[in-house]
Design a protein that fits this description.
2-enoyl-CoA Hydratase, Chain A, domain 1, 2 domains, Enoyl-CoA_hydra_C, ClpP/crotonase-like_dom_sf, Lyase 2-enoyl-coa Hydratase, Chain  A, domain 2, 11 helices
Length: 265
Amino acid sequence: MQTVTAEYSKVRLEDGVLSITISTADHGASLDSEGVAQGTRALTELGDRIGSILLRGTGPNFCAGGNVRGFAAAPDRGAHVADVAENFHGLVRALDAARVPIVAGVQGWAAGAGMSLVCLADIALGGPATKLRPAYPTIGFTPDGGMSWTLPRIVGSGRAREILLTDSVLGADEAARLGILSRLVGDDLVQDEALRLARAIAVGPTSAYEGIKTLLAESRTNSLDRQLDAEAASIARAANSPAGREGVDAFVEKRRADFAPLHSH
């Protein structure tokens, strides 16, 4: 494991994988404000050393949402929740801007902020026991973490309205069918498989992943005509990139492409 600095107790960088602990078993697996803040800072400070991002909870659940007991104890609940949301949204913005793929290992419950992070991941792995729930209406709240933006783009606006307004509990099979979870593995394999996938991505063609994520981001507002121009320019750049040259040469030479030497981590 690469030791980053002592201040990163909830974040680690190993084999190019930036692991961010977004919840622990403490406080019922609620969103860990320290892990959130450290993740935001690490994404900014570690830069090109990151080959992939892994979002994880260390307890039986991925993340059960915000610390509701903390909300209740705050002298000014609105101000307290605003601070929590500001901290959380710093991470959401940093993840959305990340040039590398984001993997989430979603064991147990992903509720509230936890579900928002699942919707933000590029690839989210769950198990048969995984359950997702917006959870906001149950306590009289509205969504944060981008859920009102990401969920309609994953499941469609009509389905998103029903899920949010009825505070639906989504089982693993339904979440996978809707595309919120990418695929299911055994419950006892979720964390190991998520880490394996993040490690495989971290030694892959990072410049191609960056190009793909850029194109997907641009497609949010582009017309098809503009998107085709962006794709043509992007694939031309990729063809002349070290990763593109290695990939094409390996294909022609009938060998497995080796992108690892191209990485700085």
